[in-house]
Amino acid sequence: MSPIVRVQGLTRRFGRRWALRGIDLEVERGTVVALLGANGTGKTTLLKVFSTLLRPTAGRVEVLGSVLPRDQDYVRAKTALMTPTGHTYEELTGLENLRFATHMSGPPLSDSSLHEILMGVRLENAANTRVRAYSTGMRKRLELARMQLRTPELVLLDEPFVSLDEEGIQLVQSKISDWRSEGTSVIIASHRIATATAGADRIVRLERGRVASEETA
Fold first, then answer.
1. Could you say which of 42, 100, 182, 210 has the lowest number of CB atoms within 10 Å?
2. Which residues, 6 or more positions from 95, have their beta carbon under 8 angstroms from its beta carbon?
3. Which domains does the chain have, with CATH numbers?
4. Which pTM was predicted?
């Protein structure tokens, strides 16, 4: 079976600034990869390329056996991305956000099922509160709930532990473990080394837009 991600010579430039400089990388299916590096090393840019939000400047990118950007619709349908800012609507409640997301991504779920998902991320008491009143950590938990509305083949997590308390961190780590046991591939981009590598199969370090090292966790 081919890797879920295969990248050769990937570069990405923003004007005169090179964010990625000749990345070569493979991610095996069903594994958890910790993508480490300081801010500005290219972690977020790499995840955005994998999720079809950005097109590469040069190089070959295969995700789920499909070539990007040519097959981006197929890849987008089977990939879930968590960003630091999230994909929530402030004027909607937590429950309404999930309800809207189910209508956009597939068959709608019942409110009772959505309440169970909110309960799983400890947001049951804020289900009917507008997201504009949520703390940053609560928004991150709602984002984690949104990602449980469907079953992706590839999960991309960009700084998933930022702004979370210890309970929130454990919730994310537990969900990563669940995805792994279900055969879902997970890539975690983070600067929090100890937290991101817990439960990871491989560790990839980026420096100045290049792969600096790879090792088995």
1. 182
2. 111, 114, 115, 118, 127, 128
3. 5-216 (3.40.50.300)
4. 0.93
Which of 183, 155, 215, 201 is closest to 32 using CA atoms?
Answer: 201
Task: Classify 119 as helix, strand or coil.
Answer: helix
d(CA 139, CA 68): 30
150: which residues sit within 8 A by CB, 6+ positions away? 80, 105, 106
Instruction: Identify the CA nearest to 188 among candidates 25, 47, 20.
Output: 47
Report helix, strand and coil shares of the chain as percent, to nearest 5.
35, 30, 35
Q: What is the per-residue pLDDT across 43-101, written as a single tens digit (0 to 9) for each?
A: 999 999 999 999 999 999 999 999 999 999 999 999 999 988 788 899 999 999 999 99
pLDDT above 70 covers a percentage of the chain that reads 100
Place of tokens 């992706």: 152
